[in-house]
Amino acid sequence: MGRTIGCIVALQWAAVLWADELPPPSGDVFVPGAKLEKLFTRTAPIRGGLTEGPACAPDGSIYFSDIPMGPDKGQILRFDPRTGMTTVFAENSRKSNGLFFDAQGHLVACEGADGGGKAVVRWNIKTKERTVLADRFMGKRFNAPNDLTIDRKGRIYFTDPQYVGGEPREIEHFAVYRIDPDGQVHEVTRETEKPNGIGLSPDQRTLYVVDHNNDPPPGSTDPKQRGAMKLYAFPLNDAGFVSGSRRVLYDLGQENGFDGMALDEQGNLYLAQRSLRRPGILVLNPDGKEIGFLPTGPSQPGATQPVGLPSNCCFGAGEEKSTLYITVDVSLYRIRTKHRGAPHAWEK
Q: Are the C-beta atoms of residues 229 and 256 closer than 8 Å to each other?
């Protein structure tokens, strides 16, 4: 993040150069011969940042965030698979990041810091009415709600780190929270250093949380050092709370870690891996074993203006139930897989 307009132009041009030169996916997850198909690239005159948070609506369209840096307004965009057109849903997203549709077909968004709303909100996609669901825990403002998922009981789980923005923090720690249908907010776990992407297993018994801590460990003077870059699995009970010890499913060590994720019907995880050595979508089975990998950019260790870094993904609906949508840099892509996505919150 933090690119200038010139960097974005360079990035988009670089994307043209590498898109057809990427190696094919590995494993037995993606349809043979399938390639990344670019659907959208930013055209709005906003600076830096990235596209994020793709979410599938009940009509099969894909909503996603375009997050700038600094004072520029972020947008929520809508891609229509039937027409191939991308339109603006919200001109001012208040720095929305992760998006998810609830059982009523409303769009729920995490709004971050850096001049954003610092809240979890709900949009009526017909009227475009925005309602704040929660912006505080125990009277203190959230840091920067980042990503979310919704269970079958309508409970919203979301992460609250802070990566950008100079706003003073009221909550000292980073945690995972849950908003219940009655509006109550609960802390689910703070057993992460900097929680980012989040997802639920199809049986609703496991909460997956990405720990993406880009800060040096306490006491370290090496700017290249960073904290946890791991994927955790937390067991959940029926009340929606952690009911046992977390498991580390994957550890990227000192590589840039994961961002967002999607799950398929079998419970496999599709993780946006921002490693400069190996950027792409890493597919793990529920035991944490790699079963597939989709490159989204070239290997570029040490790059100062990297390209092809994915941020998040989601599955489509209907005829596109096996299509994976991916936000990469400032663009939106899709590719066909052999697996159907896990049921959306609005699917009965």
A: yes
Integer angstrom CA distances of residue 13 from 6, 33, 37, 253, 333: 11, 24, 16, 31, 16
In the sheet with 62-67, reading across from the earlier edge strand, the strands are: 50-56, 62-67, 75-80, 85-90
**What is the chain's length?**
348
Mean pLDDT of the chain: 93
Q: For 293-317, write each residue's pLDDT tens digit.
A: 999 999 999 899 999 999 999 999 9
Band of residue 220 on the pLDDT scale cut at 50, 70, 90? confident
158-182: string of b/e by CB count within 10 Å (b at 16+)? bbbbbbbbeeeeebeebbbbbbeee
- For tokens 């990503």, the residue is 147
Q: Domain holding 282: CATH number?
A: 2.120.10.30
Going from the C-alpha of 97 to that of each of 108, 197, 230, 281, the distances in angstroms are 10, 11, 20, 19
How many folded domains does the chain comprise?
1
pTM for this model (two decimals): 0.94
* Amino acid identity for residue 292 in this structure: G
Whether 292 contacts 30, CB under 8 Å:
yes
- The first and second tokens of residue 346, run together, are 């609005």
Tell me if 156 is assigned to some domain.
yes
Q: How far apart are CA 265 and CA 323, in angstroms?
A: 13
Asked if the structure places residue 236 within a domain, the reply is yes
What are the distances in angstroms from CA 258 to CA 92, 144, 201, 262?
27, 18, 17, 12
| Structure confidence by residue, pLDDT tens digits, 234-282 | 999 999 999 999 999 999 999 999 999 999 999 999 999 999 999 999 9
DSSP characters over 214-275: -SPPTT---TT----EEEEEEEB-TTSSB-S--EEEEE-TTS--EEEEEEBTT--EEEEE--
> Domain range for residue 311?
5-336
CA distance 116 to 100: 18
